[in-house]
Amino acid sequence: MFRSVAELVKIAEKKNISISEVMIQQEMDLKNQSREEIFSQMEKNLRVMERAVEDSLQGIQSVTGLTGGDAVRVQQYMKNNQTLSGPILLDAVSKAMGTNEVNAAMGLVCATPTAGSAGCVPGTLFAVKEQLKPTHEQMVRYLFTAGAFGFIVANNAFISGAAGGCQAEVGSAGAMASAAIVEMAGGTPQQSADAFAMTLKNMLGLVCDPVAGLVEVPCVKRNAAGSSLAIVSADLALAGVKSRIPCDEVIGAMYRIGQTMPSTLRETGEGGLADTPTGRLLKEKIFGTN
Amino acid sequence: MKFQSVFDIIGPVMVGPSSSHTAGAARIGLAARNLFGRQPKWAKIHLYESFAKTYQGHGTDMALVGGLLGFDTDDERMKNALQIAKTNRLKVEFIVESARVDHPNTARIIIGDDTDTLEMIGVSIGGGKVEIIELNGFALRLSGNHPAILIMHNDRYGAIASVTSVLAKHQINIGHMEVNRKDIGKEALMVIEVDENISDSILNELRNAAHIIRISKIVS
């Protein structure tokens, strides 16, 4: 089993295979299952992601009313206006937010790596798809590439906001998406690692401060930030820009920052945006005073 | 390593909004139902700390009840679980506790029908993973890092062998095992952590093994 990004890249380069292929082979060994079985399980996850995006574009509202409708709003804006950030980036943002709107409304999602950060990987996938025109197999492989990097973060640091703040959740999710975009666009394993590092570096220190403790505000918009950063970092890596700090060291930095983060900023709903006048007011409106 | 499979990262497929407060809660409810062996007629659910403070917004109540109704984390009937419980004549009561406990996401579930009751304490440790820390007064120690099987059995010779021989036949390795009993010859509990998830057909085989009363699996 690979334990670090350096090991993962080395295996891929030595065998001259893609990162997704390294992940698929490891999973086949672990489960003692055929390639077809592993692949079809991931295809099921892909279908859930696709449906969540489709559902969100019909318009959706959470139980509390705090979130919903922004995915549609962005799509409308794209249709009727000359946008500033461009169609692919905004499409990713819309689909990432949409996935999290479905999540907030108790719809069906695939945790990638968690439910709160479930928008980044599918949001970017269904947006870059329009430009890269991948085969169905490449779309499934996208999830294995993302999973390979997430696997390393989960085992060397953390992937939950309660443990390490939002940097561990949306930070990891956006970085996983960057690495997967690079592979789909024809980049090298090392370029995937650089893209991952560049996204995570720019998410370091991000706290988990959900209003009323709910996976809604600011989680939905954090997925917008994570997915847009994912695409920018992928472009940087494909342009040949390298991360000065190696990927594994960035993951290590994220871990140490998370360990020193106070508990009020780790998914307790006690600090940050949750503890603003409006945040407190919204909490009161939802749960009453107690 | 804590995480072994790519599907720990890309997955589970689940009803939102929170892997710990929704998916984990459903798995706690489902474990209670499986241990009880059938749908109970009533449930008293005590909620602690973060579960107590945010259960409505996260749908923790629906998820716990959904689990009791037999819904898994990806069952879209979860949203309507409270309504479905009424239709299925499952009477549910939630009790919000202010006592401090070791883990922020803790639920104590007491379920029963005309013939039997069961009490269980479950905690949701993140990412949809759960631990059952107490069952009918038996303290449990499950790491939550591996799938586990909980087996209530009669304290008789041969009960343990009948279970381990089924696992051996299917080449399933036991990582950790504990056996507890209330008194000689009375109800006893086996807790077995294994390296891989147990299929339903193996679970049925175990259910039919000698001296077994109830059985439930916990997916890591």
From TrEMBL, chain A:
InterPro entries assigned to the protein according to its UniProt record, in alphabetical order: Fe-S_L-Ser (IPR051318), Ser_deHydtase-like_asu (IPR005130), Ser_deHydtase_asu (IPR004642)
Source superkingdom: Bacteria
Cofactors, names only: [4Fe-4S] cluster
Acetylation listed as a keyword: no
Pfam families documented for this protein: SDH_alpha
Domain Serine dehydratase-like alpha subunit: 14-274
Keyword set, alphabetical order: 4Fe-4S, Gluconeogenesis, Iron, Iron-sulfur, Lyase, Metal-binding
Entry keyword annotation includes Ribonucleoprotein: no
Known pathway: Carbohydrate biosynthesis; gluconeogenesis
EC numbers, comma separated: 4.3.1.17
Listed GO biological process terms: gluconeogenesis
Reaction catalysed by this enzyme: L-serine = pyruvate + NH4(+)
Gene Ontology molecular function: 4 iron, 4 sulfur cluster binding; L-serine ammonia-lyase activity; metal ion binding
Alphabetical list of NCBIfam families matching this protein: sda_alpha (TIGR00718)
Family to which this protein belongs: Belongs to the iron-sulfur dependent L-serine dehydratase family.
Protein name listed in UniProt: L-serine dehydratase
Organism: Cerasibacillus terrae
From TrEMBL, chain B:
Entry GO MF terms: 4 iron, 4 sulfur cluster binding; L-serine ammonia-lyase activity; metal ion binding
Chemical reaction(s) catalysed: L-serine = pyruvate + NH4(+)
Pfam families reported in the protein's UniProt record: ACT, SDH_beta
Keyword annotations of the record: 4Fe-4S, Gluconeogenesis, Iron, Iron-sulfur, Lyase, Metal-binding
Necessary cofactors: [4Fe-4S] cluster
Biological process (GO), any one: gluconeogenesis
ACT domain mapped to chain residues: 148-220
Pathway noted in the entry: Carbohydrate biosynthesis; gluconeogenesis
Highest taxon above the source species: Bacteria
Family: Belongs to the iron-sulfur dependent L-serine dehydratase family.
Record-given protein name: L-serine deaminase
Species the sequence originates in: Cerasibacillus terrae
Gene name tied to this protein: sdaAB
